[in-house]
């Protein structure tokens, strides 16, 4: 990328993140489509382009536990031999991430590593696309494909002095996404030769894991174990699998894959390709597209979980959606609210998902109002869906102590709603 292209891209980036142009404007520029789409996703998920790089990961395990239990730990000698050893004096940083974008190992040139620390590119931080915006390891995981991101193509300004090349790593037996290998440095990192080197390293790592599986059948096993689907609220939907060795694998889902898994979860009897196409999109989706999506979905969540003819889940899958419904059925409204951060897949345009979303939202709201409990009511009203719930705010006002701050706040909110409707 020459200096003129860099200046042009930086100018477009400034216009886009400042809201001076809309998302469609990017299509009229010279920005690569894969980067433009990533910028759109980054903006939609609320990434702050001025944030100082990656945030601390939200994983519950400590970094040491994650490293010890992660399948790629056994492949570190391979990665170090092929990448790290030659990076020590070359101004390049080598990073290995988990499938959720958490950086597990960051090694390489000591000076470059110290500079990378300034943007929080360190072990234990979350460099998924939904957290740090467009970047090679995060976007490679989001798209499940190798990618190069050059300087000003990064969404976050703090990362724009860098270029990077990354590729995802998969379990050789199940196809489950394990993480990504990334090279970060100057402009020389975003070359075809670097991409070939990273690609070759991924192949070597996957071959190493396959050989290890043959000689030590239980080493790093990622056979299907306990699976969980998280699809409520504004965060990106996640598929989490705890394998038989106790290792946690978390994979971000595309909107379409999330829709499919929710529908299969709600239809344990199974769905034909025709029926699934209608549930996903009653106008423009054909069976061929559904079959292609199912093939991609299997590679993401691991083979052996979804069966064909009809499509159905072959093992129990827990979900935040199912648990909220179960808690409501049991009359435990407080626990249902604990697991309800917001609507089901709020961006989904699937008519079937829309019906489930409306059913769940109405069920939670109705249960909360039926309790008459001011604390539960307040928690509901603090959710995005509750902010415009006039009946709920009226109930909160009427149940509050006369002259209290809570009653005054509820009265003020009701006034605001009335002005909005005027």
Ordered list of secondary-structure elements with their pairings:
Elements: H1 3-17, H2 33-44, E1 55-56, H3 63-69, H4 76-87, E2 93-98, E3 103-108, H5 110-117, E4 125-126, H6 129-132, H7 136-143, E5 147-149, E6 163-170, E7 177-185, H8 192-215, E8 226-230, E9 238-242, E10 248-252, H9 255-266, H10 273-280, H11 287-301, E11 306-307, E12 312-313, E13 317-319, H12 320-329, H13 333-338, H14 351-371, H15 374-381, H16 390-399, H17 405-421
Parallel strand pairs: 8-13
Antiparallel strand pairs: 1-4, 2-3, 2-7, 5-6, 6-7, 8-9, 9-10, 11-12
InterPro entries: GAF-like_dom_sf
Protein name: Transcriptional regulator
Walk me through the structure.
The radius of gyration is 24 Å and the shape is globular. It has 17 helices and 13 strands. With 422 residues, it is α+β, with helices and mostly antiparallel strands. The strands form 4 sheets. The chain has a 5-stranded antiparallel β-sheet, with helices on both faces. Strands 10-9-8-13 form a 4-stranded mixed β-sheet. It has a two-stranded antiparallel ribbon with strand order 1-4. The protein folds into 2 domains: 3-215, 2-Layer Sandwich (Beta-Lactamase), CATH 3.30.450; 223-357, Arc Repressor Mutant, subunit A (Orthogonal Bundle), CATH 1.10.10. Helices cover 47% and strands 14% of the residues. Mean pLDDT is 86; it is low at 220-224. It starts with a helix and ends with a helix. This is Transcriptional regulator.
